[in-house]
Amino acid sequence: MPDNVGEDFIRELLQSADPEKLASFLRELKPDKPKKYHDRHKENSPVKSYTTVIKNYTCIACGHNFSTSYKMEKGDQTALLDKKGTVHSITSSGNEGTVTLLSYCSKCDYCRIQASLWSREELEDRWIALVEASSFKEKMTCQVIIGSGRMEVKL
Questions:
Q1: Contact 103, 60 (CB under 8 A)
Q2: What is the pLDDT of residues 24-43, one digit of tens each?
Q3: What is the largest CA-CA distance in the chain?
Q4: In terms of pLDDT, which residue wins out, 82 or 38?
Q5: Does some domain include residue 110?
Q6: What pLDDT sits at residue 142?
Q7: Looking at the structure, do residues 61 and 35 belong to the same domain, yes or no?
Q8: Residue 81 domain-assigned?
Q9: With a threshold of 0.85, does the pTM exceed it?
């Protein structure tokens, strides 16, 4: 059987076919055009509203105050630390507007600079307050050597 038998058969079928049926058959074979991206975007995503959050921090270690600002969508969460050390989770309701939150942090980038400005007495008082505030329930005895003197702290 010669190689061009299949081609001749297809050519004869196409020549004898009704042109209207052939056109409708070719239209059915043509792939559908996909929807444009912006058409689907309009259907699926509503306008989002954001809440502007201003979080004012106070550093527990040095007393420095600073703030951050960001936007939250509905359902986004942020955490706050109160002065007692309890963490609170805040969830955005998605309402437009500005919300100011007060929070604390245990240390900040300014602590080293601030501590270098304190007097020796201020450093001792803050160190003792820090040791007293530790979460260990056992009684401790700490010896601290400052300069040439010796200081003993019993808790």
A1: no
A2: 777 777 666 666 655 555 55
A3: 114
A4: 82
A5: no
A6: 45
A7: no
A8: yes
A9: no
| Better-predicted residue by pLDDT, 48 or 121 | 121
* Tokens, residue 26: 């070719």
Within a domain: residue 30? yes
Torsion angle of alpha carbons 133, 137, 138, 143, nearest 10°? 0
Count of domains observed in the chain? 3
Please provide the DSSP assignment of 10-77 as one string: HHHHHHHS-HHHHHHHHHHHSPPPPPPHHHHHHHH-PPP--EEEEEEEEETTT--EEEEEEEE-TT-E
Within-domain flag for 67: yes
Sheet holding 65-72, edge to edge: 65-72, 51-59, 97-105
- Chain position carrying tokens 């245990």: 106
Instruction: Clarify whether residues 57 and 14 are in a common domain.
Output: no
Residue whose entry in the numeric block shows the structure tokens 């260990």: 136
